[in-house]
Design goal:
The complex is a heterodimer. By secondary structure, chain A is α+β, with helices and mostly antiparallel strands. Chain A is built from eleven helices and five strands; from the N terminus they run αααααααααβββββαα. Chain A folds into three domains: 123 residues, Cytochrome Bc1 Complex, Chain D, domain 2 (Orthogonal Bundle), CATH 1.10.760.10; 69 residues; 52 residues, SH3 type barrels. Helices cover 36% and strands 11% of the residues of chain A. In chain A, helix 7 crosses helix 11. Chain B has one domain: Quinoprotein alcohol dehydrogenase-like superfamily (Methanol Dehydrogenase, Chain A). The longest helix of chain B has 14 residues. Classes of the chains: A alpha+beta, B mainly beta. At the A-B interface, helix 4, helix 6, helix 9, strand 2 and helix 11 of A face strand 28, strand 29, strand 31 and strand 36 of B. Strand 2 of chain A pairs antiparallel with strand 31 of chain B, so a sheet runs across the interface.
């Protein structure tokens, strides 16, 4: 367990269920300041000890009690108010005893539950697990064989060190479609992507103009000239101007529907090893 | 019109007159108007109950559309100055309300007696349909909820109805925008958020809740148009002991199983059936804790609007694990199959399939795919339902699936033209990798993450309803990063026109028989709602929203 996770709910859940390290959840980040992490940790420890036997140590249901992260009462609770009232009396009809807890203990348990609900509800915080499970040798064979990747790429050339350049999820995504996505720095227009679609047009005067395609509609075409930085457009009238489109990623587009999941995992394992 | 239908109308008229109908010229909408598919108004979300978004108007037509010109522009005014203000939230909106930037017009305006009524999250506007000038603006102080969009308002008599992202059902005076009352319909703290447009059927206001961040119950309600109180509530999954419960492993999974009725439905007055599509089951992207078909999620359902009782259902995505709800418009088609007149219902679904059903019985007629890239099924079963391939559920190392969670198409309303027999829809052949992130036995929320890896193409397609086959397909605009646009609001007319966009920021009138563009306006951004048309003072208008601006077009005088 890495130290930086020590305060997170995920770490606590994983500790509570040894052998299931796959369920480690992301730490609550600085952008989600409403949860006092120390309170979450205290609440988690209290919950595991006091409530976990019936409701499960992760509050998703246990031997005799329902899951609490789905509970309407818990979701609607305000900082332990409704939860505290319930804990004071218990639910004798359903076999739940009353609990004598100090107000700050109730608040800690409530914070733990609300933080767990928050992590369930905010999928942008979901952490993809270890995805490098494929066979790198099979990936290498696909690279130079059926995948025809070696037609354009080389593990000692353009892909040298690619496994160190990207995290595995980004790498797998770029194997499939190496265009778009967020690079370092501020977002930029799609026509500045090095893999942007190219176009050349031939005017009725037979002049030919080439550039990066900004937009092609039924009515006009707009090109970006990387040399001058100029953006220009032309109306379309029937077959004029003559337009040729070249997508540098055509091979990736053609390959996209043919990937098996195994081929994809093997390729990622192979490329992830090119450190 | 059946006797029962006539009885209903008579009943409604008797109830409304004289207070609402006679007194309020200039604002009031007689609900029986909704049964007549009027051309001089647009009185409900789809223009009429059928969901066809087809107009018999021909003043603007294929011969003269080249002359179509701008009548006026209305840019959304979101200022609180001069607005009618309501709501339960704080003066400074909570952070949750700011995640989607400035409001976009996704709502289809109602047009009644010369006034347009439309909405965006937390806002309703009334705009003069002759001049494009604002008449009133209502602003709702929100408590939160996801502000992704609002489909529009409903109207009954002199009253406007809409839903808010923090789940209030609000009624306004159509003449002034003054609030009449509001009622909470779902708890924003449970991550419900409401987007749908209320639909009025007789003396019922039909509203559905939304929200899929947590595992919460989905339901559709009928509310009384005067008091706003619940008449009935229909849960989109069975309660314990009900038929359909066998499609869930536990009562807990079932009653928390989602199935949000995100969008407005359609209605057949003769059959007295209200049709609506339900949303995805919960947890969204993982099915381990909900083995089974998970009825009635991802289903087209027919309800009796008087009682809220389920009459039939057809599940288009059994045991969905890719967020493909069935909320897309169930379009009512009166057609002919094998030489016999049939009452049909068609849907181009987010899961990449086109379905045609008998809308009286719910019996399956045909299923086809409307994109070529679908890779998640093991074919169709005897009832025409796609059989999900378990190997295409989210996995830890990733599963490549087409279409992505946004789907081959989505909420923007399609169109069906009885003149061409074609069903028009914007589609994309998108791919995503689905990563399982939650390996607990009891998964919750989404339980998996998605990474989009592009699209093989985006198209405007015309589907022959009798065969389900694509008659024509037109690629949308190409940008530096690939094709743009795709799901889009559409409108067809008897003037041999199909209005939509081109994915490249142009609003276009296409030839509905071939897909050839006949006219366009360079709005700069793609149209963002369903276009509409109506006669006002004897002139036909076409009105469309694109981003934060509403545009009206008409022919020169």
């Amino acid at each position: 367990m890495r130290a930086r996770l020590a305060c997170s709910i995920g770490a606590v859940l994983a500790l509570a269920a040894p052998g299931l390290s796959a369920q480690v959840r992301p730490p609550i980040t600085a952008t989600d300041p409403q949860f006092d992490q120390a309170s979450v940790a205290r609440g988690s420890a209290l919950f595991v000890g006091q409530c976990g036997f019936c409701h499960g140590s992760n509050a998703r249901g246990g031997s005799s009690g329902p899951g609490l992260t789905r509970s309407a009462l818990v979701q609607d609770d305000e900082a332990g108010k409704q939860l505290g009232e319930l804990l004071r009396t218990g639910r004798p009809d359903k076999g739940m005893p009353a609990f004598q807890l100090a107000p700050d203990q109730v608040a800690d348990i409530a914070t733990f539950l609300h933080a767990a609900i928050f992590l369930n509800a905010n999928r942008r915080l979901y952490q993809v697990l270890d995805i490098v499970t494929g066979d790198p040798k099979a990936g290498e064979a696909y690279f130079s064989g059926a995948g025809k990747c070696a037609t354009c790429h080389s593990p000692t050339g353009d892909l040298k060190g690619v496994g160190a350049k990207y995290d595995a999820v980004t790498l797998q995504g770029r194997v499939l479609m190496p265009r778009g996505g967020r690079g370092a720095g501020p977002p930029q227009p799609a026509y500045l992507d090095k893999n942007a679609i190219r176009a050349s047009i031939t005017l009725p005067s037979r002049q030919t103009i080439s550039g990066v395609l900004v937009r092609l509609t039924d009515f006009d075409i707009t090109l970006y000239d990387p040399q001058t930085g100029q953006i220009r457009s032309w109306f379309r009238n029937g077959d004029a101007p003559k337009i040729e489109i070249a997508d540098p990623l055509q091979a990736h587009l053609d390959r996209l529907p043919t990937w098996t999941d195994d081929d994809m995992h093997n390729m990622t394992a192979y490329l992830a090893g090119l450190k | 019109m059946s006797t029962r239908g006539l009885m209903r109308i008579v009943g409604v008229v008797a109830l409304l007159a004289p207070a609402a109908l006679v007194a309020q010229q200039g604002a009031a909408l007689d609900p029986t108007t909704l049964l007549k598919a009027p051309t001089d108004s647009w009185p409900t979300y789809h223009g009429d109950y059928s969901g066809r978004r087809f107009s018999p108007l021909t003043q603007i037509n294929a011969d003269n559309v080249k002359n179509l010109q701008l009548a006026w522009v209305y840019r959304l005014n979101t200022s609180q100055a001069f607005a009618q203000i309501g709501g339960e939230g704080p003066d400074v909106p909570p952070a949750a309300a700011n995640g989607f930037g400035p409001p976009t017009i996704k709502s289809t305006p109602l047009m009644v007696n010369g006034t347009l009524y439309f909405s965006a999250p937390d806002h309703v506007w009334a705009v003069d349909a002759r001049t494009g000038r604002e008449i009133w603006h209502y602003f709702w102080k929100t408590r939160g909820g996801i502000h992704i969009g609002n489909r529009g308002v409903g109207m009954y008599g002199n009253w406007i109805y809409f839903l808010t992202p923090d789940n209030y059902f609000v009624s306004l005076d159509a003449m002034t925008g003054k609030e009449r009352w509001h009622h909470e319909i779902a708890n924003v703290k449970r991550e419900y958020f409401s987007t749908s447009a209320p639909i009025i059927v007789g003396k019922q206001v039909l509203i559905g809740v939304g929200g899929d961040s947590l595992d919460v119950p989905g339901y559709l309600e009928s509310r009384d148009p005067e008091s706003g109180q619940v008449v009935w509530r229909w849960y989109t999954t069975p309660r314990p002991g009900q038929p359909g419960a066998e499609s869930w492993p536990t009562a807990d999974a079932m009653v928390n199983g989602g199935g949000m009725p995100w969008l407005p439905g359609t209605y057949d007055p003769e059959l007295n059936l209200y049709y609506i599509g339900t949303g995805n089951p919960q947890p969204v992207l993982a099915g381990k804790s909900r083995a089974g078909d998970n009825l009635w999620t991802c289903s087209i359902v027919a309800l009796n609007p008087d009682t809220g009782k389920l009459v039939w259902y057809y599940q288009v995505s059994p045991h969905d694990t890719h967020d493909w709800d069935a909320a897309q418009t169930p379009v009512l088609i009166d057609g002919v199959i094998d030489g016999k007149p049939r009452k049909l219902l068609a849907q181009a679904n987010r899961n990449g399939h086109f379905f045609l059903l008998d809308r009286a019985s719910g019996k399956h007629v045909l299923t086809t795919t409307h994109i070529d890239s679908v890779n998640w099924t093991k074919g169709l079963n005897a009832n025409g339902q796609p059989i999900p391939n378990p190997a295409k559920e989210a996995s830890i190392p990733g599963t490549l699936v087409s279409p992505d969670t946004s789907g081959a198409t989505n909420w923007p309303p399609p169109s069906f033209s009885p003149d061409t027999g074609l069903f028009y829809v914007g589609v994309t052949q998108s791919f995503s990798v689905f990563y399982l992130t939650d390996t607990n036995e009891n998964q919750e929320g989404w339980a998996a993450a998605e990474r989009n890896v592009g699209s093989l193409g985006r198209y405007l397609k015309a589907i022959d309803y009798k065969t389900g086959k694509v008659r024509w397909s037109r690629p949308l605009a190409t940008n530096a990063g690939g094709a743009g646009g795709a799901p889009m609001g559409l409108l067809s007319t008897a003037g041999k026109l199909l209005f939509g966009n081109d994915g490249g920021g142009n609003f276009v009138a296409y030839d509905p028989a071939t897909g050839k563009p006949l006219w366009h306006a360079g709005l700069g951004v793609n149209s963002s709602n369903g276009p509409e048309t109506y006669l006002l003072d004897g002139r036909q208008y076409v009105v469309v929203g694109a981003g934060d601006t509403l545009y009206a077009f008409t022919l020169p005088r």
